[in-house]
Every structure is written in C-alpha cells, then in structure tokens.
Model the fold of this input.
Amino acid sequence: MGKRRMLWWLVAGAGSTSLALLAIFGIAVAVLGASFTGCQPGDEPALASTGPTPSAYALQSIPPERLRLYEQAGSKFDIDWSFLASIGAQECNNENCAGVNSAGCAGPMQIAYVRGSACSPGAEPTLWERYAVSAHPGQAPNVNDPADAIYTAARILRQDMGAPPTGGTYNEYRQAACRYYGACGDSTVAYADEVMARAVQYGFTGTGSPTPSSPPLSQPVSTSGCSASTLTPEAASSSQIVRVAESQLGQGEQPPGSNCTIYGPCEEWCSLFAAWVWQHAGVPLPGSTATYGYSGSLYTWAKEHGGRILPPSATPAPGDAIFYGTGPNASAHVGIVAQVLPDGEIVTVEGNYAGHVTRVGPFQPAHPVGETAPVYGYAQPPSASSGGRQAG
Done:
C-alpha cells in the first residue's frame, strides 16, 4: 500500500490544541462517573473477544457499537482488537469518513480503493478488491460500512501487512502499522508510534510494550462480557468544570514533544483539552474533541448555542474558557479559569502549556503569564451554572 495522508480528523487552525494522556483513575471516575450497561437481550457479541479487556480510556473514547465491531473483528481474524481500534482512531477518529479521499483511500479504515491512485499505485487490484469482507451475511461488502471496513482492515493487516495473531509483540504490531501507512511516519505524523501509544492506552499488553502514558486509565475495566457505556459526566457546573480540569494537572504529551495526548488528535492541543474538560463536565458539545481543535472554536460554539460571551474587561467566573489572541478568527490559545481572586487576579488551568496541563497564575488578565497575545474574551457554556458576572 502506498504512503498516504488520510488523517481526516486533523483540524486546521493556528491555535494551540490537544490529545493529552489522561489522569488519575480514582479521581477521574469520581469526577466523571462510570456507567456500565447491564446485559440486555441480543447485546452479547457474535464472537467473544479474545484480546485484552478494554481499559477505562477505551470505554471512554470509543463509541460502544464501534468497540464491539473491533472486538468481533479481532476475534474473527485473530488480531489484537486494541491495535485494530487504534488504527481506526488514527485514520478516522472512530468516525465514518464516507467516500473516497483525494489519495484514493476510502471509508472508516481508509482502505486503498482506487487503482492507479496514491493509495494503490499501478493497475493491479486494490487492497479492497483483494480482501473485501462483508460482516453482513448475504450482502456485498461496502467500504463505507463500518463493520465491513473494520473486518476488511483486520483481514488486510493479518494477511497482507504481517500483523501477528492476538498476543503478538509490540514491535510486530508496530511494523504492521508501518506497512498499513506505507511508512512508519513522515514529517506530518509519527504514524506507527501514535498508533501504538494509543493501543497501549486502550489495553494492549504485548511483550515490549512501554509504560502507558496514563497507567490508571489504561487499567482493564470488567463489563461481565456485556457492552459498556462511555464514562458518563455529571451535569455541567462551574465547580464541575474546574474539578475536571484540575484532575488533569501534570498530564502531558507521550512521547514528549509529539503533541500526542488523550484529548484528541496529535496536534497542538490547548483547545482539545478545553473541549475535553467541558465535555466531561457535562457540557453538551457534540462530536469528538477534534471538532474543536482551533483555539477559537469554543468561543464560537458558545456564542452560537446560548452560552455567554464576555469581553476582556469583564470579570470571569470559574469554569469559563479564557481566550488569548485578537479575536475568535485570530485566536492563539485557550485555557480554563479555575479561580478568581478578590483583587481581580485569576488562576487558570491550561493544556499545552510547556507541553503539559498546567496551573497558571495568579495573574491580572490584562497581563497574561507566558502569553504573547492578550486576552480577547471569555465564554461560559450554556449549561454551566455559576455566579453572576459584571462588566469591568
């Protein structure tokens, strides 16, 4: 398979953003809550998973129906489902990516689909033509169907890319990731390293695996053989937003300097972190954090969805997002207000601050600490309940 650039979830923008690698499991569960569904008729997977037990992070970040597909494909084709799921996250952020991209790859797993394209140079049959599998008996395989795409990718990885059976080593799976991309990485993405770091967070334990970037959230969570829901946040409030933000203090990139975190794609991640905090405090932000990758995204979203927008002269409240730059279209950075002091100074929690989630301040908003751009405003999410504000 030819080298291709098909990470469709990368969001263009100048602002700092995030994919950070989570926090203390005890704190996270206490803050976010863990809600697992009981066994319901028909919920049992068609094939019992033979791979690792999903971690708290896997249950949190992979939609339940998509997780079941990864597990079922892993069992059918004897491949570690956590590796397969990480490929899916890398290629399409566990979304659908329907259609054919400009390089000639298609669907949720971005499989080579067009002959003579960058994804499939030459006139030989494509990987899809050679390995397509239907997960639905009696139906033709469809590259845009998540189940068909995941089953087919599992078959390709095992039969063409050299992925080992379930239980294979870290290095064997890493080499399969290199082959799937057509290279181990390039100037844009450290593809294989990113895939494997995420797989380890999902629960991968093959020989040679490094320590997970967030060991507590990489721990397996038993679901008694039934599907598990994602971690369920409480209703949003100022205090809840601050609690979630502070639970992440010290979390950073893995490996350092990579921009790879658990908060979203491997890119600048201040806004991914802020969106992650709001989502996990109960703010009804739709979609994945990748949607909010630009640092002005939350400002615009709050303005359009009933949130409250404050000028830089206003007094913010804990839980508000604070924005640096000259405006939402020229945004440079975003953080979360954690504390407002009587003298008007504030303390923030910010992602991608020297590569970590960091407490910043106290400082006067007119003189931000460590920022080259001024504060241009604040945004309160529409469902947050907090104290009143007053214009300065």
Remarks:
- Residues 2-46, 224-235, 384-392 have pLDDT under 50 and may be disordered.
- The chain has two domains: 36-218, 238-380.
